[in-house]
Design brief:
This protein has about 230 residues and is of the alpha/beta class. The protein starts with 9 loop residues before the first strand and ends in a 7-residue tail after the last strand. It has a six-stranded parallel beta sheet. The chain has a two-stranded antiparallel sheet with strand order 4-5. The chain has nine helices and eight strands. Helix 1 runs antiparallel to helix 2 and helix 1 crosses helix 4. The longest helix has 17 residues.
Length: about 230
Amino acid sequence: MTDSPSRRPRLALFDLDHTLLPLDSDYEWGEFTIRLGWCDRTEFGRRNDAFYADYQAGTLDVLDYVRFATEAVRLRGPEASRAAHDRFMQEVIAPAIRPEALALLRSHRDAGDEVVIITATNEFVTGPIAQALGVQHLLAVELQRDASGWITGEVQGTPSMREGKVRRMDDWLQARGWGWSDVETTFYSDSLNDVPLLERVDHPVATNPDPRLRALAQQRGWRILDLFPSNP
């Protein structure tokens, strides 16, 4: 009897915002800082809305946005910022963690898949969210640190956005001695911004897709998953 060929390791890759969460954590963090009184409601709200529209349109300048989005945190310092994020987790994120998302993650873990969140939202916002979802591997926008270890407002390395998600996954795989052909990959995302990575994986899944991604997925024959069908 001949041995069957060994199965390739399987990776389940997930976008975060509007994919595993029914909201945009980066945008909601900005709104939360307004409620804390850390930012001017009118000016910050206007700019936050404009950046979010750029993201949806696929035209976001991620470096400019990260400077804007992290300014309040940078100025408040680590102690106040981490305490605020604890509140953010309790008041905004915890109520948004849906059983459908937890069940999907659990199904991949139970199948022996390695689970990775890869998101264009920065690591300060998303680190605790990944922990709350029980996901060990997080590829987020990394933030440059000063000599004290606190954030500077600049991005460190390649931002995990659009084609940058593919480059970050290239690096993640290479660090483990793998190439794309060595693993079987599935990627869940809601956004047209993630088409480069959706095109790269073995099994693209348009998840809670925006209208443009839904249309593209239908054209390409990609699986479509409406994980949160009760969303308004």
